[in-house]
Give the backbone structure.
Amino acid sequence: MVNDLLKKVRKIEIKTRKLSHQIFAGEYHSAFKGRGMAFSEVREYQYGDDVRNMDWNVTARLHAPYVKIFEEERELTVMLLIDVSRSRLFGTVGESKRDLMAEIAAVISFSASINNDKVGALFFSDKVEKFIPPKKGRTHLLRIISEILEFEPQGRGTDIGEALRFLTNAIKRKCTAFLLSDMFDLDKDAVPRYEDALKVAAGRHDIAAINVYDRMERELPSVGLVHVADSETSEGIWVDTSSRRVREYYRSWMENAYTSTRTLFNKYKVDNVSIATDQDYVRGLMSLFKSR
């Protein structure tokens, strides 16, 4: 079991590290800026320099115009908010949502590492299950990937608001946070239940949301009478999937859930992308980075 996990982690590392070096490092660097500009040095004024950067003390002392030079303060803290609820185990085509989230998290982590950023992780179900403080280093990143693949949560449900509140309280300085989830934290009307927490967290941190889903979740196939169960609550019902009315109701509800979730993210300027388990996630991540 341990050997199988190590092989899987190693396989993900080889694949995603290569992607991070060849494709994502430059896009990541451009998309996720540092905290601002930090003072570097002073040098003699040159034609075209911004006079607002004049260092008047040095200018007066040396009797010649000098300007301050600033450099971008690049180092970031990157936090991965990983949904470990029971629904992440679902997967009918491609791979499970858990495995896809592990690969996406690995690509982001190695891209961050190439840019000398620290990476931390927060695992959540209907409560915060585990917090790994931000650090640097390959061993640290491989630990995060391993935890995504093997972590067994105590809770079964999903509470994105609780994860966002924990992030706000635990990370005081502005960070870049990636929320990886299927976003199944909705009321009966398909409205997200975490708006207040998102509003506060997005006001303090730079948040990007990655909605990982399986295509079979979006539309019921017509396969007759089947028993379906909610993986998070274990509640089950019999559903007549041969009924067009039933299939249309389900499709409409899921479409409303998707629309209301995207509308909420857009409202608080949270960049977001949806990636299916049978989809090339490279294209999805590239579109997320380039949209910033």
